[in-house]
Specification:
about 35% helix; globular; seven-stranded mixed sheet; Aminopeptidase
Length: about 180
């Protein structure tokens, strides 16, 4: 059981300082079968390069990065809000890369991250959020319990880390 979880927003400098811990969570999730844009085997340098780009996006004001830490300060989860959108969509943002380390699952961390990302979206002036997830996965129940509206499913939209096709379900939420 994970106690005393703290969810907070991190800036660009801190995001850059958290690269190793963020990579640990990403690698754990991919190795656990999460379809989050990466294939097995996932190299540590690839995970670090991804998080460097995220930190750069935070520095440019294009995304918001939240982290969840356990009582000992160890990073156990993360989620992003992509705020850089086309000119005709200044009110919209995408929720991306909701990741919780396998050892910290079923402790309410994902739910807390979702509440926090919605608050961050409001702080950024965003009123429409969009996300996607693997069809039939545990995350669907999380999003539906949190009031997200299922928009539709695209079969064979992506690949699981092992190379198998998976459908993707799209959700939206009006804040």
């Amino acid at each position: 059981m994970i106690d005393n979880v703290n969810v907070r927003r991190v800036g660009a400098d801190e995001a850059a300082a958290c690269l190793e811990a963020l990579a640990d969570v990403l690698i754990d999730c991919v190795e656990g079968g999460a379809s989050v844009s990466f294939m097995l085997p996932i190299a540590r340098d690839k995970a670090l390069a991804f998080w460097r780009k995220v930190a750069d996006g935070v520095a440019r004001g294009e995304r918001v990065l939240l982290v969840a830490e356990d009582g000992g300060g160890q990073l156990v989860g993360t989620v992003q809000l992509i705020t850089a959108q086309p000119e005709n969509q200044p009110h919209r943002a995408d929720v991306a890369k909701m990741l919780v380390h396998r050892k910290a699952r079923r402790c309410g961390i994902a739910q807390r991250l979702m509440v926090a990302i919605e608050h961050a979206a409001l702080e950024e002036g965003k009123s429409v959020l969009v996300l996607d997830t693997v069809t039939g996965g545990d995350a669907e129940r999380l999003y539906e319990r949190a009031g997200w509206q299922r928009v539709g499913v695209v079969p064979k939209y992506a690949l699981m880390p092992d190379g198998e096709f998976c459908g993707t379900t799209f959700y939206c939420k009006q804040l």
